[in-house]
Amino acid sequence: MREPLFVKQNAEQWRHFEQAPVTDPDEVAERFIKITDDLAYAKTFYPKSKTTEYLNGLAAKLHQTIYKNKTEKRNRFITFWKLELPVLFKTYERQLLYSFIFFFVFCLMGVLSARYDPNFLRLILGDQYVDMTNDNIAKGDPFGVYKSHQEFLMFMGIAANNIYVSLVIFVSGIIFSVGAVYHLFTNGIMLGSFEYYFFSKGLGAQSVLVIWIHGTIEISSIIIAGAAGLVLGNSLLFPKTYTRLASLKKGARDGMKLAIGLVPLFIIAATFESFVTRHTEMPIWLSITILASSLTFMVWYVIIYPNKINKTRT
């Protein structure tokens, strides 16, 4: 059927649905089914037309009408991390992959820059930090910085800072995703330089066993925050069949959920950094156990579990 004929046959009904809202649940459901059927047809035969865009917006309005007064279950808090967040990980697995690749490449850039430019390390980490760490290495306690603050105050400061940074990364994605990539760049460069510094001092293995006790979850969460920023920015750049405004609203909502979902992870990472990492004399087997458990959890929760849920839903 040609598009003009399709529009002519249904335009009056669509206009009625748009201009004459109803509250009866059965009537709303019937309208929603009708519009989604028409939308599916339009997507199939006129995927890039204004008709498809219009129907997509009308379907979204009906969907909101159905669910805006839905009573939330008491276990909504648990459901969010058990189902909703993993589903978002699966939905935006491509953005997660891009964020990981960006961050990994920027880390390598940090390593190479620190290796071939003697001044680069101090430029990125600061003279004060480098001088302090050099003094700690000379004293035989290279990771003494983690013992220099009271545990609880350190925990509060680190948790608040990491949550703030993740939200900044997410919000900066509104600048056409470039903002999120920039923050991945700065964090990746810093991490690469930081690790090269310890490896250049012959403390590479020890730095992994100490720093990555908290770093595994913390860095993974930064990458997810970068993906949240990409979700926001891409929704503005690539609206697909949605209007640009509707796409932006959806991207903002989903990206914010990803960012909020990181809060417990940052709290766990801050707990490790404040109360565990400072014990640099702990047995190697214990350090490896904590590190491996953190890595296993992140891989399972972000990749394996979401794919399992997706297969079940399918």
Please give a structural write-up.
The protein has 314 residues and is mainly α. It has two domains: 3-67, no CATH class; 76-313, no CATH class. It is 81% helix and 0% strand. The chain has helices spanning 3-19, 25-45, 50-67, 76-91, 93-116, 120-125, 127-138, 151-172, 178-200, 204-237, 244-260, 263-276, 284-313. Helix 2 (25-45) packs antiparallel against helix 3, helix 5 packs across helix 10 (204-237) and helix 8 (151-172) crosses helix 9 (178-200). The protein starts with a helix and ends with a helix. The model has no long low-confidence stretch (mean pLDDT 89).
Structural class: mainly alpha
> How large is the count of helical segments?
13
* Principal-axes shape call: elongated
The biggest beta sheet reads: none
- Counting DSSP E segments of at least 2 residues, the number of strands comes to 0
Keywords: Membrane, Transmembrane, Transmembrane helix
Protein name: Stage II sporulation protein M
Transmembrane segments: 96-116, 163-184, 196-213, 219-238, 258-276, 282-304
